[in-house]
UniProtKB/TrEMBL annotation:
It is an enzyme of class 3 (hydrolase). It comes from Streptomyces tabacisoli. InterPro entries: GH, GH13_cat_dom, GlgX_Isoamylase_N_E_set, Glyco_hydro_13_N, Glyco_hydro_b, Glycogen_debranch_GlgX, Ig-like_fold, Ig_E-set. The keyword Transport does not apply. This is Glycogen debranching protein GlgX. Belongs to the glycosyl hydrolase 13 family. Pfam families: Alpha-amylase (PF00128), CBM_48 (PF02922). Residues 497-509 have a biased composition (Basic and acidic residues). One of its GO terms (biological process) is glycogen catabolic process. Transmembrane segments: none annotated. Keywords: Glycosidase, Hydrolase.
Length: 735
């Protein structure tokens, strides 16, 4: 096997040492500015590097000159030292010495400057020239390239950690600053910090694409008008771009390629990257809180940007490859449950500590209100299998900080047995892709019957009615960042990802979409009108369903990615929200309907129940909390549930809502009848009579283009109402 070393014998110029290094303390990990012995200000550096033989601290001045000194103190596998005079703004990194033996998973290479896993801020951007790889990236025999060590210095080509001022007292984010919206009352809005603000005309140009831009009143005004209670931010941890994208002149736009779990992504900062990004992020959170909006982070703790054995050496791989990553029996190779080349070894205590320390930091010092965990099943694996008693889930459940925030699982990974929808324990909510699939299939006419739709509309009790879980365990969504936008879902049947440079092979082919008869845009007026109607149907269905609805930024006014269903590398107009759509009457009307539906949801507890329906009568008149009706006005029978159908009536009783309000009083509300009709022709629907209602008032009719106010239409119970082709009718019960 090859054993050659590339680049030996020429180090980059540096001055050594950095100055006196006092013993310091092993905790907390990372770089922490403080007052040391004898009142001397300086910074304590501490790095866990379990199998390392030596660790060097590297400091960089404004011209990029490097100074090195060893951290000679070792306590419980943590290398540490206190450096007097090192103040906030100082850039730094580590070089870690040890064996180079890839066959056993040992990949130490001190030629590579490594980012501190606990760095609070990162200055600079990751490029991926050959020098940042621990092995010889371009070795002629690629099948053994990862075994050939590259000794060229990577310091000129990688970002550095930044010492920041720890100015966040424990009470900075006191509970009264947080909206603390109950789960059942939540409406989540998934957005990308850069994409949401990049083209907003009301945000100053210099703030667009930044945390400060999202904190701007113009951005917050839209969120408040829409009525959402939380923003779910696509990854804002410091991330790197993949080599295959950089070679094609593209970048990782979504950010699911984390490398710094404590650092706000520097490229989203308007104020600077020498630590200023930390304060800017905090001000953004505070501005959103002041508007009553929670902040949820989409976090990627399942893998890092270092990829597999042929990936770069940026941080953990060079600190202790075997300690941080899951390796196969052949320790040269990585166990990959994520599809991204590596998987963090969460069973290891120091890895679990890294993740939980990071989570607590974002809650207690950065003010966030919850997390959505990318590929959460990978975090729940014990040694191999997904285990709902795994160390990760157990630690979260008992943590006094983390068990109080919102926890959302993407309940799958790409490994064997990784699909775990409905399996996560109490405290957790889940992205419910079965909801997405059922609603998409119903409105495109692809459901064989309406059994699955009934479960999804009423809170997915078949998935979540166990172990004390509630209907809000289901995060209902029709679209997400990954896939078609809502407008593209009704405009394209095939993905159009040519701009990604992968021959349209990337992205899912299972879109469950319907183009309404014409592929793409523009389309003739009748097709365009049908598409807008389908959008109204989809949004109305989502916002009337029991569970927690999640919208994607721009779907409420017709954002399009021109058929690209995998725009992860499109940092341009394909992905950025086009705010000019709000100036077009058709798309403005869609926004108005969406905001009215959200307001309706906030006003009526029957639409955001905290307990599952029983389906049983609670009074002598036989009225039940939930009932299902055919178009004949009769209650659904077992046979009806199994028969092909394009129409379903759902009756929600406001008289039988379990639980009490904050004053201990019974919760009472209006009752509603929702009629969903996906057929291509108008259908007569017989309105149920006593005891269900005496008459019905139309609240929403998606057959109408503009719905600035509730239609002033009342129908008698027992009569027949005509439901237009592909329409939702929402009727308020009058008794």
């Amino acid at each position: 096997m090859p054993s050659a070393l590339i680049g030996r014998g020429r180090d980059r110029e540096f001055t050594s040492p950095v100055g006196p290094v006092w013993p310091g303390a092993p905790m907390p990990l990372g770089a922490r500015f403080r007052v040391g012995p004898d009142g001397v200000a300086g910074t304590n550096f501490a790095l866990w590097a379990g199998g390392a033989e030596r660790v060097e601290l590297c400091l960089f001045d404004a011209e990029g000159r490097e100074s090195r000194s060893p951290l000679s103190e070792l306590t419980h596998e943590i290398w540490h030292g206190f450096v007097p005079g090192v103040r906030p703004g100082q850039r730094y990194g580590f070089r870690v010495h040890g064996r180079w033996d890839p066959w056993t998973g040992a990949r130490w290479n001190p030629a590579k400057l490594l980012l501190d896993p606990y760095a609070r801020a990162v200055d600079g951007e990751f490029g991926l020239p050959p020098e940042v790889y621990g092995h010889v990236r371009d070795w002629p025999e690629q099948h053994v390239a990862d075994t050939v060590r590259d000794d060229r210095d990577s310091a000129p080509y990688v970002p550095k950690g930044v010492v920041v001022h720890d100015d966040a007292p424990d009470d900075e984010w006191a509970d009264d600053r947080r909206p603390k919206t109950p789960w059942a009352d939540s409406v989540i809005y998934e957005l990308h910090v850069r994409g949401f603000t990049r083209r907003h005309p009301g945000i100053p140009e210099e703030l667009r694409g930044t945390y400060a831009g999202l904190a701007h009143p113009a951005a917050i005004e839209h969120l408040v008008k829409l009525g959402v209670t939380a923003v779910e931010l696509l990854p804002v941890h410091q991330f790197a771009h993949e080599d295959h994208l950089l070679r094609r002149g593209l970048k990782n736009y979504w950010g699911y390629n984390s490398i710094g779990y404590f650092a706000p992504h520097a490229a989203y900062a308007a104020s600077g990257t020498a630590g200023q990004q930390v304060g800017e992020f905090k001000r953004m959170v505070r501005a959103l809180h002041d508007a009553g909006i929670e902040v949820i982070l989409d976090v990627v703790y399942n893998h890092t940007a270092e990829a597999g054995e042929l990936g770069p050496m940026l941080s953990l791989k060079g600190i202790d490859n075997r300690g941080y990553y899951r390796l196969q029996g052949d320790a040269r190779r990585y166990a990959d449950y994520t599809g991204c080349g590596n998987t963090l070894h969460v069973v290891q205590p120091h890895v679990l500590r890294l993740i939980t320390d990071s989570l607590r930091y974002w809650v207690t010092e950065m003010g966030v209100d919850g997390f959505r965990f990318d590929l959460a099943a990978a975090l729940a694996r014990s040694m191999h299998d997904v285990d709902m008693l795994s160390p990760f889930l157990a630690v979260i459940a008992q943590d006094p900080v983390l068990r109080r925030v919102k926890l959302i699982a993407e309940p799958w990974d790409v490994g064997s047995g990784g699909y775990q929808v409905g399996a996560f324990p109490p405290l957790w909510t889940e992205w419910n892709d079965r909801y997405r699939n059922a609603v998409r299939d119903f409105w495109r006419g692809a459901l064989p019957d309406v059994r699955d739709l009934g479960y999804r509309l009423s809170g997915s009790s078949d998935l979540y009615a166990w172990g004390g879980r509630r209907p809000y365990a289901s995060v209902n969504f029709i679209t997400a960042h990954d896939g078609f936008t809502l407008r593209d879902l009704v405009s394209y049947e095939r993905k159009h990802n040519e701009a990604n440079g992968e021959g349209n092979r990337d992205g899912s082919g299972d879109n469950r979409s319907w183009n309404c008869g014409t592929e793409g845009e523009p389309a003739e007026p009748s097709v365009a009108a049908l598409r807008r109607r389908q959008l109204r149907n989809l949004l109305t269905t989502l916002l009337l369903s029991t569970g927690v609805p999640m919208l994607v930024a721009g779907d409420e006014f017709g954002r399009t990615q021109r058929g690209n269903n995998n725009a992860y590398c499109q940092d341009n107009e394909i992905s950025w929200v086009d705010w000019g759509l709000l100036d077009e009457p058709g798309w403005r009307a869609l926004f108005d309907l969406t905001s009215r539906l959200i307001a309706l949801r906030h006003a009526h507890p029957v639409l955001r129940r905290r307990a599952f329906f029983s389906g049983r009568a609670h009074s002598a008149d036989g009225l039940r909390d939930l009932a299902w009706f055919t178009s004949r006005g009769t209650e659904m029978t077992e046979r009806d549930w199994y028969a092909p159908a394009a129409t379903l009536g759902m009756y929600l009783s406001g008289r039988d809502i379990p639980g009490r309000d904050a004053r201990g009083e019974p919760v009472e509300d209006d009752s509603f009848l929702a009629v969903l009709h996906a057929g291509d022709r108008a259908e007569g629907f017989v309105l149920p009579g006593e005891p269900w209602a005496r008459e019905y008032e139309v609240v929403v009719d998606t057959g109408q283009e503009a719905q600035e106010a509730a239609p002033d239409v009342v129908h008698p119970a027992g009569g027949t109402v005509t439901v237009g082709a592909r329409t939702v009718l929402l009727l308020r019960v009058r008794t």
